[in-house]
Prior knowledge:
It contains six helices and two strands, in the order H-E-H-H-E-H-H-H. Helix 3 crosses helix 5. By secondary structure, it is mainly α.
Amino acid sequence: AIINPALQVGVVVESALVEKLEWEMNRMPCALPFLQLLLMELYLRRKGKVMTLASYQQMSGLTGTLIAYAEGVCNSADNKDRALLRNLITWLIKQWENSNVYCRSSG
């Protein structure tokens, strides 16, 4: 799901990066929908034709990628929408902390 699509566009993915991504997705199966965003960012930060573990680490992994994306969305919104987004994000975090949001088992 990672290597073949990259090869189709002439990009190589470091094996260490593949291992890290597989570990991340196995650790948090509910994060799988965010893999596309993470891979897109890694593609944009590739070194020549290689997607690297170093880029992943510079982005602070999945969590850093999501934070940067959310900040970008919030910063591009007008003040009214920014307040709504902030309330929504705060609510989502509280739901997560209160364990009202669950990941489905991957098995």
